[in-house]
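Hi,

Apologies if this is the wrong queue. I'm a grad student, and the batch job for Methionine biosynthesis protein MetW from Deefgea tanakiae produced an output file that my downstream script rejects. I'm not sure whether the problem is my script or the file. Here is the sequence I used:
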Amino acid sequence: MAHPTTLRPDLKHIAEQIRPNSRVLDLGCADGELLAWLQANKQVRGIGVDVDVNSIVTCVEKGLNVIQADMESGLQHFEDGSFDYVVLSLTIQSMHNVELILQEMLRVGRCGIVTFPNFGFWENRWQILLGRMPVSETIPYDWYNTPNIHFCTVHDFGKLLHKLGMQVNGQIVLHQGEPVEFLPNLLGSLALVRFSQAAKI
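Support response: The file is valid. Your script probably expects a header line. Output copied below for reference.
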């Protein structure tokens, strides 16, 4: 099995959040790029989930553990607390039941990591101001052919986590793969949020 030596920039930042020898569930794993890298470089025990048959075949060819499932109905294939990390990368904006998948992520795992296009990015705001739906590097579809049904900003996502009794443990906002620290909700096009259940007082 050939191991990848480099990762897509957003996946690189996810990988940096994950400790060696941990258990990882990668939801919407696509071609398994992240899992393959984590197994080769951090010795994680990982499972991928995807609904696309071609993605499943690609993962199997890479020697990855992967199952085909529709995440919209939950993660009933997995027991409570089975994983250290549950990753959902660039998928949440296309899911119907966002609240369910976030709750399921923290049922089966201790820590969730989600990445999504930041709708608060200034170029998106500017295109709306001009009367158009945004099309950008992180939102590469026209309004009539997009799989995305829920757009949110960095602030929106944090507010939803709070509503669900969850807390942000770490957040990175990126643009073209590089972290944005100044006005991240305005100048960053892609957000990475690490979260867990909020501590009970």
